Amino acid sequence: MQIHPSAIVHPKAELADDVTVQAYSIIEENVRIGAGSIIGPHCVVGSGTVMGANNVCYSGAQIGISPQDLKHLKGVAGKTIIGDGNVFREFVTVSSSTVYSEEDLKKITRIGDNGLFMACTHVAHDCTVGNRVIMANHASLAGHVTVQDFANIGGLCGIHQFCVVGTRAFIGGMSRISKDVLPFMITEGAPARCHGPNTVGLERGGFSKEAIRCIRRIYKLLYRSGLNTTQALQAIEEQIEDSPERTTLVDFIRNSPRGISK
Questions:
Q1: Between 209-223 and 244-254, two packed helices, what is the crossing angle to 10 degrees?
Q2: Is the peptide bond before 5 cis (omega within 30 degrees of 0)?
């Protein structure tokens, strides 16, 4: 390990043999950090945080710190579990889960693998963030938000509590998200509206022309047909051939706790 003399590492923290901790950083109690990870200067990794391998924290990142929730029990550490290969740029904040009682000790703030969290982004308590998610500068997730794999959230976006952002969704910068964001689609604005398939992202992700055509037809039935959501779902199942993309979108809408952005 390469631990700078000015860094503070709690005796009960577990660091892999090749972890780097740079100047003035603090690693709190019961933290585990995997192989190849680099904790830059002036960072804090909060008590109870588990980080996988090859994560990088730039200057000032605060990972797994106490949640910004007035109901959180003082002196009790929540849980934060982070996968492998994530990049947390300058002044990123990731809050641990909120603990209201002993039953809440099972709750977790969770981040998957290979995410990019640009400068000053915020992941609040009890969020679940998937794999290969990108959050641009100053984008913020409120508590209990779910962001599925490959989603891309533009700078200065605000995501309301309990919202779900679907897989491979693209949210334009400065958007205000108060309802769920459909997979595969571009959503932007304040209030946010769906503007059609994320064609460029889907092509880069290896989706076939047939799959993109299917997603475009579903979008038209949902937003351009004059049907309400229930009628549109019925039309989608009747008119569009079964496919993984159709299943993903139909299941997402039917299971949406807040309703979808229109």
A1: 30
A2: no
Residues 6+ apart with CB under 8 A from 24: 4, 6, 7, 41, 42
**Backbone angles phi and psi of 109, in degrees to 5:** -85, 125
- Please count the other Cβ atoms lying within 10 Å of the Cβ belonging to residue 103: 8
CA–CA gap between residue 93 and residue 151 (Å, rounded): 19
pTM of the predicted model over 0.90? yes
**49: β partners:** 80
DSSP 96: P
Give the C-alpha distances (Å, rounded to integers) separating 259 from 99, 130, 230, 256: 28, 21, 12, 5
Active site amino acids: 125-126, 143
* pLDDT 10s digits, 76-116: 999 999 999 999 999 999 999 999 987 787 899 999 999 99
Identify the residue whose tokens are 């989706």.
207
CB-CB neighbours of 56 under 10 Å: 16
Give the C-alpha separation, 26 to 150, whole Å: 31
